[in-house]
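step 4 of 6: structure.
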Amino acid sequence: MKYLKSHIFLIFALVSILFSIEAYLVFNKIVSTYETKIAKNYTMIIVSKTKIEKLNFDNISKIEQINIENSLENIQKQLKNFDINKIKAKLPYFYKLHFKKYPTPSEIKKLETNLLENPNIKRVESFRQNQNQTYNLLLIIKLVTTIFMIIILFISFLLIVKQLEVWRFEHSERMYIMELFGAPFWFRSAILLKLAIIDSLLSIAIIFGIIEYVINSDMYQKLLSQLQISVDISIFQDLAMFLVISLGISLVATFIVIFSKKDEIV
Amino acid sequence: MSKVVVAKDLYLGYKNETIIEKGSFSLNSGDFVFLTGASGSGKTTIIRNLYGELKAKSGYLNIGGFDMMKISKSRLTYLRRHIGIVFQDYKLIREWTIEKNVRLPLMIAGINEDIQHKKVSKLLSQVKLAHRADKYPYELSGGEQQRAAVIRAIINEPVLILADEPTGNLDEYSAKLVMELFQFAHELGITVLIATHHLPQTFDIPYRHIHIEGKKIYEVS
């Protein structure tokens, strides 16, 4: 109980930091998976007088010619005097442009302008308005998660500062007494370092529990199925990152306490 | 007789204030020395200087062969393992038991743990504190805490023991018991320097008396 009291702020701060970083990564993963998915579904239609084999734009993954045969045959069935061959000869070529990644509104605008500069291209349909709404929604989600992460990091930083003050008060006298009797640096710092490592590992264990619970929750699974995407999130992949961040923060905090304790005493 | 401490023309003080001017004295191996002076005369300043917490402004100070004016941090750490320190406020580690507190210098010296326990147990029994071994400092009286603190200073048989007003907070009886422990240290051949307001009325062993007055250090014959 006494241990928990003295370490609750650091553990809470570490858990908050790790959670906000993981949440940020998960959101980014979801958003980019969703972006890839809607990039696959998104196409731009162009109408050209001549055949198009290739366009010089990096983001275009495929140029697919739209087959209008079926539509013409349907029309022929309904209209007796419809000469399909005559119409065919006069009709332009229709193409669908597929993209490697979801294009930004400015990319679409630029592409549209460039395509229309080509005298053979008669029309470009980008469905820009719909696309803009989706893209802006993704941008808002990204922005919100980034702001969320920054706020959490800031609050966690304040908690760590508070914890440092508590530790400085609690441990400085013991370290000072040890120093008086000639204890080397590692001997004096051993208890604090041990506690810092335990706090880090405890925080990682807590965050594992929380994230495992969240990614297996109905709400999260429902969200993914509504978005019709599957995001592979394995917390074990982030273990090294968690270890580095958590141990890094708690050890830096510990060293600040160790090196600043003298001012308190003398 | 070898010199444990040699101080020559020491200037000690804090920022612009000088507490000791041209202070010279020496302690021989096995000496028992009382350092007296009025409040604020500089007794604590000298003790702090001797255990390396306060550097002299100028002069020369040698402890156990180490030049304290030029000593590095790592050498000071090493030297402190051969100096026992006793304070008026005991400076026992609150969250440790008395046994562990007394064991501290042996732990620092890296002595085998079994030997540590045996040695502590023997000394605590000798000073009738064995029944308090598992207690925490706050569970003991002031006199008991100070006896534990003196035992901690003695346990690894240092070359020098420095005590700053060790009986200042104690009643007459407890003060007597603590002084007996310093005599015990002296019998072990340890050099003892005790800073105190007043000399004890009666004292069983021969001792030297150094006095501070008007920023100067005098040997009282």
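step 5 of 6: annotate
 - Chain B has a mean pLDDT of 93.
 - Chain B touches chain A at residues 51, 53, 77-83, 85, 91-96, 104-105, 107-108, 152 (CB under 8 Å).
step 6 of 6: archive
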